[in-house]
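Quick one before lunch.
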Amino acid sequence: MYSKNAWEKYDNEKLDELMKFNEEYKNFITFGKTERLVVAESIKLLEEKGFKPIDEFKTLKEGDKVYAINRNKNVFAFIIGKEKASKGINVLGAHIDSPRIDLKQNPLYESFDFALLDTHYYGGVKKYQWVTIPLALHGVVAKKDGTVIDINVGEDENDPIFCITDLLIHLSADQLQKTASKVIEGENLDVTIGSMPLKGEEKESVKANILKILKEKYNFEEEDFVSAEIEVVPAGNARDLGFDRSMVAGYGHDDRVCAYTSLRAILDLKETPTKTVCCALVDKEEVGSIGATGAQSNFFENVIAEIINLQENYNDLLLRRCLSNSNMLSSDVSAGVDPLYVGVNELKNSAYLGKGIVFNKYTGARGKSGCNDASAEYVAKLRKIMDENDINYQTAELGKVDQGGGGTIAYILANLNMNVIDAGISVLNMHAPMEVVSKVDVYEAYKAYIAFLLNA
Ligand code: MN
Ligand code: MN
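Model of the manganese (II) ion complex:
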Protein backbone atom coordinates (compact mmCIF):
# COMPACT_ATOMS: atom_id res chain seq x y z
CA MET A 1 0.00 0.00 0.00
CA TYR A 2 3.04 2.27 -0.28
CA SER A 3 2.73 4.76 -3.19
CA LYS A 4 5.70 4.96 -5.54
CA ASN A 5 7.77 8.06 -6.17
CA ALA A 6 6.42 9.44 -9.43
CA TRP A 7 9.74 10.83 -10.73
CA GLU A 8 11.00 7.32 -11.51
CA LYS A 9 8.74 6.77 -14.52
CA TYR A 10 9.84 9.94 -16.35
CA ASP A 11 12.31 9.60 -19.24
CA ASN A 12 14.15 12.67 -20.57
CA GLU A 13 11.51 13.61 -23.11
CA LYS A 14 8.67 13.36 -20.58
CA LEU A 15 10.79 15.24 -18.08
CA ASP A 16 11.11 18.15 -20.51
CA GLU A 17 7.31 18.30 -20.86
CA LEU A 18 6.93 18.24 -17.08
CA MET A 19 9.46 21.04 -16.61
CA LYS A 20 7.91 23.16 -19.38
CA PHE A 21 4.46 22.75 -17.84
CA ASN A 22 5.83 23.95 -14.51
CA GLU A 23 7.42 27.02 -16.13
CA GLU A 24 3.96 27.92 -17.43
CA TYR A 25 2.52 27.31 -13.97
CA LYS A 26 5.16 29.55 -12.36
CA ASN A 27 4.20 32.36 -14.73
CA PHE A 28 0.53 31.84 -13.89
CA ILE A 29 0.95 32.22 -10.12
CA THR A 30 3.54 34.97 -10.45
CA PHE A 31 0.89 36.99 -12.28
CA GLY A 32 -2.17 35.60 -10.51
CA LYS A 33 -1.69 37.02 -7.02
CA THR A 34 -5.41 37.66 -6.44
CA GLU A 35 -8.65 35.95 -7.44
CA ARG A 36 -9.38 38.81 -9.86
CA LEU A 37 -6.01 38.42 -11.56
CA VAL A 38 -6.46 34.64 -11.81
CA VAL A 39 -9.83 35.19 -13.48
CA ALA A 40 -8.33 37.73 -15.91
CA GLU A 41 -5.49 35.37 -16.86
CA SER A 42 -7.86 32.39 -17.13
CA ILE A 43 -10.12 34.29 -19.53
CA LYS A 44 -7.09 35.11 -21.68
CA LEU A 45 -6.08 31.43 -21.84
CA LEU A 46 -9.68 30.32 -22.51
CA GLU A 47 -10.14 32.82 -25.34
CA GLU A 48 -6.86 31.65 -26.90
CA LYS A 49 -8.30 28.11 -27.00
CA GLY A 50 -11.60 29.19 -28.56
CA PHE A 51 -13.82 29.41 -25.47
CA LYS A 52 -16.54 32.10 -25.76
CA PRO A 53 -18.73 33.84 -23.16
CA ILE A 54 -22.03 32.04 -22.59
CA ASP A 55 -24.12 35.04 -23.65
CA GLU A 56 -22.70 34.78 -27.18
CA PHE A 57 -24.50 31.44 -27.71
CA LYS A 58 -28.09 30.97 -28.94
CA THR A 59 -27.81 27.17 -28.66
CA LEU A 60 -25.13 24.79 -27.45
CA LYS A 61 -24.01 21.67 -29.29
CA GLU A 62 -21.42 18.93 -28.91
CA GLY A 63 -17.88 20.32 -28.78
CA ASP A 64 -18.85 23.93 -28.03
CA LYS A 65 -16.48 25.72 -25.65
CA VAL A 66 -18.11 28.20 -23.31
CA TYR A 67 -17.30 30.16 -20.17
CA ALA A 68 -19.12 32.29 -17.61
CA ILE A 69 -17.71 34.81 -15.16
CA ASN A 70 -19.15 36.09 -11.90
CA ARG A 71 -18.16 39.52 -10.52
CA ASN A 72 -14.65 39.05 -11.94
CA LYS A 73 -13.94 36.55 -9.14
CA ASN A 74 -15.30 33.25 -10.52
CA VAL A 75 -14.78 31.73 -13.92
CA PHE A 76 -16.51 28.52 -15.01
CA ALA A 77 -15.45 26.89 -18.29
CA PHE A 78 -17.33 24.12 -20.08
CA ILE A 79 -16.88 21.86 -23.09
CA ILE A 80 -20.22 20.50 -24.23
CA GLY A 81 -20.08 16.71 -24.42
CA LYS A 82 -21.55 14.17 -26.80
CA GLU A 83 -24.33 13.63 -24.25
CA LYS A 84 -26.63 16.44 -23.18
CA ALA A 85 -25.55 18.27 -20.02
CA SER A 86 -28.75 17.17 -18.29
CA LYS A 87 -27.31 13.60 -18.24
CA GLY A 88 -24.70 14.83 -15.75
CA ILE A 89 -21.37 16.61 -16.01
CA ASN A 90 -17.79 16.03 -14.85
CA VAL A 91 -16.57 18.95 -12.77
CA LEU A 92 -13.12 20.03 -11.63
CA GLY A 93 -13.59 22.63 -8.90
CA ALA A 94 -10.78 24.64 -7.34
CA HIS A 95 -10.56 27.85 -5.37
CA ILE A 96 -8.54 30.86 -6.45
CA ASP A 97 -8.49 32.91 -3.25
CA SER A 98 -5.47 32.49 -0.98
CA PRO A 99 -4.67 33.62 2.55
CA ARG A 100 -3.46 37.22 2.52
CA ILE A 101 -3.81 40.59 4.23
CA ASP A 102 -6.58 42.95 3.09
CA LEU A 103 -6.68 46.72 3.55
CA LYS A 104 -9.43 48.01 5.83
CA GLN A 105 -11.98 50.45 4.42
CA ASN A 106 -10.32 53.39 6.19
CA PRO A 107 -6.73 52.20 6.03
CA LEU A 108 -4.44 55.21 5.75
CA TYR A 109 -2.92 56.86 8.82
CA GLU A 110 0.22 58.60 9.98
CA SER A 111 2.18 57.70 13.08
CA PHE A 112 5.57 59.06 14.20
CA ASP A 113 6.29 60.38 10.69
CA PHE A 114 5.45 57.10 8.99
CA ALA A 115 2.46 56.54 6.72
CA LEU A 116 0.82 53.15 7.25
CA LEU A 117 -2.11 51.13 5.96
CA ASP A 118 -4.33 49.38 8.48
CA THR A 119 -5.29 45.83 7.55
CA HIS A 120 -7.45 42.84 8.37
CA TYR A 121 -5.99 39.44 7.54
CA TYR A 122 -7.94 37.03 5.31
CA GLY A 123 -7.98 33.28 5.88
CA GLY A 124 -5.91 31.19 8.25
CA VAL A 125 -2.47 32.72 8.67
CA LYS A 126 0.35 32.33 11.15
CA LYS A 127 0.73 36.10 11.56
CA TYR A 128 4.40 35.93 12.51
CA GLN A 129 5.19 34.62 9.00
CA TRP A 130 4.02 37.85 7.33
CA VAL A 131 6.37 40.39 8.93
CA THR A 132 9.71 41.59 7.52
CA ILE A 133 9.13 40.16 4.03
CA PRO A 134 8.73 42.08 0.75
CA LEU A 135 5.06 42.75 0.05
CA ALA A 136 3.12 43.94 -2.98
CA LEU A 137 -0.29 45.60 -3.26
CA HIS A 138 -2.85 44.34 -5.77
CA GLY A 139 -6.48 45.16 -6.28
CA VAL A 140 -9.02 47.67 -7.45
CA VAL A 141 -10.34 51.05 -6.40
CA ALA A 142 -13.93 51.52 -7.55
CA LYS A 143 -14.91 55.18 -7.79
CA LYS A 144 -18.36 56.72 -7.52
CA ASP A 145 -18.29 57.68 -11.20
CA GLY A 146 -18.15 53.97 -12.12
CA THR A 147 -14.47 53.82 -13.06
CA VAL A 148 -12.41 51.00 -11.57
CA ILE A 149 -8.70 51.62 -11.11
CA ASP A 150 -6.28 48.68 -11.08
CA ILE A 151 -3.57 48.76 -8.45
CA ASN A 152 -0.43 46.65 -8.92
CA VAL A 153 2.69 47.77 -7.07
CA GLY A 154 5.66 45.75 -5.89
CA GLU A 155 6.16 43.08 -8.54
CA ASP A 156 8.33 44.86 -11.10
CA GLU A 157 11.96 45.04 -9.96
CA ASN A 158 11.81 48.83 -10.37
CA ASP A 159 8.68 49.10 -8.21
CA PRO A 160 8.87 49.95 -4.53
CA ILE A 161 7.81 47.19 -2.13
CA PHE A 162 6.06 47.44 1.23
CA CYS A 163 6.57 45.72 4.57
CA ILE A 164 5.12 44.93 7.97
CA THR A 165 7.73 45.71 10.59
CA ASP A 166 8.66 43.60 13.60
CA LEU A 167 10.46 44.38 16.84
CA LEU A 168 14.25 44.06 16.92
CA ILE A 169 15.52 40.99 18.81
CA HIS A 170 17.41 43.26 21.25
CA LEU A 171 14.18 44.62 22.72
CA SER A 172 11.99 41.53 22.35
CA ALA A 173 12.30 40.10 25.86
CA ASP A 174 8.58 40.64 26.60
CA GLN A 175 7.37 39.84 23.07
CA LEU A 176 9.14 36.47 23.02
CA GLN A 177 7.33 35.37 26.18
CA LYS A 178 4.05 35.41 24.22
CA THR A 179 2.61 32.35 22.52
CA ALA A 180 3.17 32.14 18.76
CA SER A 181 -0.48 33.03 18.03
CA LYS A 182 -0.02 36.31 19.95
CA VAL A 183 3.58 37.21 19.17
CA ILE A 184 2.34 39.31 16.24
CA GLU A 185 -1.13 40.69 16.97
CA GLY A 186 -3.72 41.04 14.20
CA GLU A 187 -3.87 44.80 14.70
CA ASN A 188 -0.10 44.98 14.29
CA LEU A 189 -0.17 43.70 10.70
CA ASP A 190 -0.15 47.28 9.38
CA VAL A 191 1.87 47.99 6.28
CA THR A 192 4.49 50.74 6.14
CA ILE A 193 4.16 52.75 2.92
CA GLY A 194 6.09 56.01 3.36
CA SER A 195 8.05 58.42 5.53
CA MET A 196 8.63 61.62 3.54
CA PRO A 197 6.67 64.76 4.48
CA LEU A 198 4.98 67.00 1.94
CA LYS A 199 6.81 70.35 2.03
CA GLY A 200 4.74 73.17 3.49
CA GLU A 201 2.12 70.85 4.96
CA GLU A 202 1.90 71.23 8.75
CA LYS A 203 -0.49 68.48 9.81
CA GLU A 204 0.10 64.78 8.92
CA SER A 205 2.44 65.81 6.17
CA VAL A 206 3.73 62.27 5.43
CA LYS A 207 0.18 61.02 4.90
CA ALA A 208 -0.54 64.12 2.79
CA ASN A 209 2.44 63.29 0.59
CA ILE A 210 1.19 59.72 0.06
CA LEU A 211 -2.27 61.05 -0.87
CA LYS A 212 -0.65 63.44 -3.35
CA ILE A 213 1.23 60.52 -4.96
CA LEU A 214 -1.92 58.38 -5.10
CA LYS A 215 -3.84 61.23 -6.73
CA GLU A 216 -1.12 61.88 -9.31
CA LYS A 217 -0.38 58.26 -10.13
CA TYR A 218 -3.81 56.60 -9.79
CA ASN A 219 -6.27 59.50 -9.68
CA PHE A 220 -8.11 58.57 -6.50
CA GLU A 221 -8.73 60.29 -3.16
CA GLU A 222 -8.55 59.02 0.41
CA GLU A 223 -12.32 58.51 0.59
CA ASP A 224 -12.15 56.14 -2.42
CA PHE A 225 -10.45 53.51 -0.21
CA VAL A 226 -13.97 52.88 1.14
CA SER A 227 -14.90 51.17 -2.14
CA ALA A 228 -11.57 49.48 -2.80
CA GLU A 229 -10.41 45.88 -2.56
CA ILE A 230 -6.67 45.93 -2.10
CA GLU A 231 -4.79 42.81 -1.08
CA VAL A 232 -1.34 42.74 0.49
CA VAL A 233 0.53 39.70 -0.82
CA PRO A 234 4.14 38.49 -0.96
CA ALA A 235 6.09 40.32 -3.69
CA GLY A 236 8.12 38.53 -6.32
CA ASN A 237 8.13 35.58 -8.65
CA ALA A 238 7.52 31.90 -8.06
CA ARG A 239 10.94 30.21 -8.17
CA ASP A 240 12.47 26.78 -8.56
CA LEU A 241 13.38 25.19 -5.24
CA GLY A 242 16.35 22.87 -4.78
CA PHE A 243 19.59 22.15 -6.67
CA ASP A 244 17.60 19.64 -8.72
CA ARG A 245 14.85 22.21 -9.43
CA SER A 246 12.29 19.57 -8.45
CA MET A 247 9.98 21.91 -6.56
CA VAL A 248 8.27 25.27 -6.98
CA ALA A 249 8.36 27.81 -4.15
CA GLY A 250 5.81 30.58 -4.38
CA TYR A 251 2.79 32.34 -2.97
CA GLY A 252 -0.73 30.93 -3.40
CA HIS A 253 -0.22 27.29 -4.38
CA ASP A 254 -3.28 26.76 -2.16
CA ASP A 255 -5.22 26.51 -4.32
CA ARG A 256 -4.01 28.04 -7.55
CA VAL A 257 -1.89 24.96 -8.21
CA CYS A 258 -5.09 22.90 -8.49
CA ALA A 259 -6.87 25.76 -10.27
CA TYR A 260 -4.17 25.96 -12.93
CA THR A 261 -3.89 22.21 -13.47
CA SER A 262 -7.70 21.93 -13.64
CA LEU A 263 -7.91 24.82 -16.10
CA ARG A 264 -5.14 23.39 -18.25
CA ALA A 265 -6.90 20.01 -18.25
CA ILE A 266 -9.98 21.53 -19.88
CA LEU A 267 -7.93 23.85 -22.13
CA ASP A 268 -5.79 20.99 -23.45
CA LEU A 269 -8.54 18.39 -23.94
CA LYS A 270 -7.89 16.93 -27.40
CA GLU A 271 -11.18 15.11 -27.94
CA THR A 272 -14.83 15.94 -27.36
CA PRO A 273 -15.72 14.32 -24.03
CA THR A 274 -18.72 12.01 -23.67
CA LYS A 275 -20.07 14.02 -20.76
CA THR A 276 -20.10 17.80 -20.64
CA VAL A 277 -17.04 18.85 -18.64
CA CYS A 278 -16.53 21.84 -16.40
CA CYS A 279 -13.69 23.64 -14.67
CA ALA A 280 -15.09 25.82 -11.87
CA LEU A 281 -12.79 28.35 -10.23
CA VAL A 282 -14.35 29.84 -7.11
CA ASP A 283 -13.55 32.45 -4.49
CA LYS A 284 -13.84 32.73 -0.68
CA GLU A 285 -12.88 29.13 0.19
CA GLU A 286 -10.41 30.35 2.77
CA VAL A 287 -13.21 32.11 4.69
CA GLY A 288 -15.93 29.47 4.39
CA SER A 289 -17.01 29.58 0.72
CA ILE A 290 -19.83 31.96 1.54
CA GLY A 291 -21.26 34.87 -0.44
CA ALA A 292 -22.00 35.51 -4.10
CA THR A 293 -18.58 34.38 -5.32
CA GLY A 294 -18.01 31.43 -2.96
CA ALA A 295 -18.80 27.81 -3.78
CA GLN A 296 -22.07 28.09 -1.81
CA SER A 297 -23.37 30.72 -4.24
CA ASN A 298 -26.21 29.79 -6.58
CA PHE A 299 -23.96 30.82 -9.45
CA PHE A 300 -22.96 27.21 -10.10
CA GLU A 301 -26.55 25.97 -10.45
CA ASN A 302 -27.52 29.09 -12.39
CA VAL A 303 -24.83 28.55 -15.01
CA ILE A 304 -25.69 24.87 -15.41
CA ALA A 305 -29.35 25.85 -15.79
CA GLU A 306 -28.32 28.28 -18.55
CA ILE A 307 -26.35 25.51 -20.27
CA ILE A 308 -29.28 23.08 -20.13
CA ASN A 309 -31.55 25.85 -21.41
CA LEU A 310 -29.30 26.33 -24.44
CA GLN A 311 -29.58 22.61 -25.25
CA GLU A 312 -33.20 21.65 -24.59
CA ASN A 313 -36.51 22.92 -23.21
CA TYR A 314 -35.47 23.85 -19.71
CA ASN A 315 -37.28 22.68 -16.65
CA ASP A 316 -36.11 22.37 -13.06
CA LEU A 317 -36.21 18.58 -13.12
CA LEU A 318 -33.55 18.51 -15.84
CA LEU A 319 -31.26 20.59 -13.62
CA ARG A 320 -31.91 18.30 -10.60
CA ARG A 321 -31.15 15.22 -12.72
CA CYS A 322 -28.00 16.79 -14.10
CA LEU A 323 -26.67 17.54 -10.61
CA SER A 324 -27.51 14.06 -9.26
CA ASN A 325 -25.69 12.42 -12.17
CA SER A 326 -22.58 14.57 -11.93
CA ASN A 327 -19.09 13.74 -10.73
CA MET A 328 -16.66 16.15 -9.20
CA LEU A 329 -13.09 16.34 -8.09
CA SER A 330 -12.80 19.00 -5.43
CA SER A 331 -9.34 20.02 -6.58
CA ASP A 332 -7.66 21.29 -3.46
CA VAL A 333 -4.26 20.92 -1.90
CA SER A 334 -3.26 18.37 0.74
CA ALA A 335 -0.84 18.77 3.64
CA GLY A 336 2.41 17.12 2.53
CA VAL A 337 4.53 15.32 5.11
CA ASP A 338 7.32 17.67 6.25
CA PRO A 339 10.42 15.71 7.38
CA LEU A 340 10.93 18.26 10.18
CA TYR A 341 7.43 17.72 11.57
CA VAL A 342 6.44 14.10 10.91
CA GLY A 343 4.87 13.88 14.38
CA VAL A 344 1.58 15.45 13.24
CA ASN A 345 0.93 12.73 10.65
CA GLU A 346 -0.12 9.11 10.71
CA LEU A 347 2.33 8.06 8.06
CA LYS A 348 0.33 5.28 6.36
CA ASN A 349 -2.42 7.76 5.57
CA SER A 350 -0.50 10.90 4.72
CA ALA A 351 0.28 12.84 1.56
CA TYR A 352 3.86 12.92 0.30
CA LEU A 353 5.48 15.31 -2.14
CA GLY A 354 6.52 13.47 -5.28
CA LYS A 355 4.01 10.64 -5.09
CA GLY A 356 1.35 12.08 -7.35
CA ILE A 357 -2.16 13.37 -6.93
CA VAL A 358 -3.70 12.93 -3.46
CA PHE A 359 -7.24 11.67 -2.89
CA ASN A 360 -8.82 12.56 0.45
CA LYS A 361 -11.88 10.33 0.80
CA TYR A 362 -12.92 12.49 3.72
CA THR A 363 -11.72 15.63 5.52
CA GLY A 364 -13.17 17.21 8.67
CA ALA A 365 -12.02 17.46 12.27
CA ARG A 366 -12.33 15.30 15.41
CA GLY A 367 -14.83 12.52 14.56
CA LYS A 368 -14.77 13.50 10.85
CA SER A 369 -16.98 16.44 11.79
CA GLY A 370 -18.03 18.49 8.81
CA CYS A 371 -16.59 16.08 6.28
CA ASN A 372 -17.57 15.16 2.81
CA ASP A 373 -17.09 11.39 2.60
CA ALA A 374 -16.87 10.05 -0.95
CA SER A 375 -18.60 6.72 -1.46
CA ALA A 376 -16.48 3.58 -1.81
CA GLU A 377 -17.99 2.95 -5.25
CA TYR A 378 -16.92 6.37 -6.50
CA VAL A 379 -13.39 5.89 -5.12
CA ALA A 380 -13.19 2.52 -6.90
CA LYS A 381 -14.23 4.12 -10.18
CA LEU A 382 -11.53 6.77 -9.81
CA ARG A 383 -8.86 4.17 -8.93
CA LYS A 384 -9.69 2.39 -12.16
CA ILE A 385 -9.39 5.63 -14.17
CA MET A 386 -6.06 6.49 -12.53
CA ASP A 387 -4.59 3.03 -13.09
CA GLU A 388 -5.74 2.81 -16.70
CA ASN A 389 -4.09 6.15 -17.43
CA ASP A 390 -0.81 5.45 -15.61
CA ILE A 391 -1.36 8.22 -13.06
CA ASN A 392 0.58 8.16 -9.79
CA TYR A 393 -1.85 8.73 -6.95
CA GLN A 394 -1.98 8.36 -3.20
CA THR A 395 -4.63 8.60 -0.51
CA ALA A 396 -4.37 10.64 2.65
CA GLU A 397 -6.16 12.35 5.47
CA LEU A 398 -5.29 15.66 7.08
CA GLY A 399 -2.94 14.71 9.92
CA LYS A 400 -3.34 12.34 12.84
CA VAL A 401 -6.77 11.83 14.36
CA ASP A 402 -7.52 14.78 16.68
CA GLN A 403 -4.44 16.72 15.53
CA GLY A 404 -6.52 19.41 13.86
CA GLY A 405 -8.44 19.26 10.62
CA GLY A 406 -9.98 21.28 7.86
CA GLY A 407 -12.34 21.24 4.94
CA THR A 408 -12.73 22.25 1.34
CA ILE A 409 -15.56 23.01 -1.08
CA ALA A 410 -16.24 19.26 -1.48
CA TYR A 411 -19.24 19.04 0.86
CA ILE A 412 -20.97 22.01 -0.78
CA LEU A 413 -21.22 20.37 -4.19
CA ALA A 414 -21.89 17.01 -2.55
CA ASN A 415 -24.96 18.67 -1.01
CA LEU A 416 -26.28 18.97 -4.58
CA ASN A 417 -26.15 15.16 -4.60
CA MET A 418 -23.08 14.90 -6.80
CA ASN A 419 -20.27 12.37 -6.37
CA VAL A 420 -17.44 14.44 -4.88
CA ILE A 421 -13.98 13.64 -3.58
CA ASP A 422 -11.05 15.86 -2.68
CA ALA A 423 -8.20 15.36 -5.12
CA GLY A 424 -5.20 17.66 -5.29
CA ILE A 425 -1.53 18.36 -4.83
CA SER A 426 0.55 18.10 -1.64
CA VAL A 427 1.94 21.33 -0.28
CA LEU A 428 4.57 22.17 2.33
CA ASN A 429 4.27 25.43 4.32
CA MET A 430 0.55 25.60 3.51
CA HIS A 431 -0.84 29.14 4.05
CA ALA A 432 2.66 30.61 4.52
CA PRO A 433 3.80 33.49 2.28
CA MET A 434 5.99 30.95 0.48
CA GLU A 435 4.45 27.52 -0.11
CA VAL A 436 6.16 24.55 -1.76
CA VAL A 437 4.95 21.92 -4.23
CA SER A 438 6.68 19.16 -6.19
CA LYS A 439 6.78 19.67 -9.95
CA VAL A 440 6.01 16.01 -10.59
CA ASP A 441 2.82 16.26 -8.54
CA VAL A 442 1.76 19.33 -10.52
CA TYR A 443 2.14 17.40 -13.76
CA GLU A 444 0.57 14.17 -12.45
CA ALA A 445 -2.45 16.14 -11.20
CA TYR A 446 -2.84 17.77 -14.63
CA LYS A 447 -2.85 14.34 -16.27
CA ALA A 448 -5.19 12.96 -13.62
CA TYR A 449 -7.64 15.80 -14.25
CA ILE A 450 -7.64 15.13 -18.01
CA ALA A 451 -8.26 11.42 -17.36
CA PHE A 452 -11.13 12.31 -15.00
CA LEU A 453 -12.81 14.68 -17.46
CA LEU A 454 -12.73 12.09 -20.24
CA ASN A 455 -13.59 8.97 -18.25
CA ALA A 456 -15.62 9.69 -15.11
MN1 MN B 1 -7.40 25.07 -0.29
MN1 MN C 1 -6.33 26.88 2.41
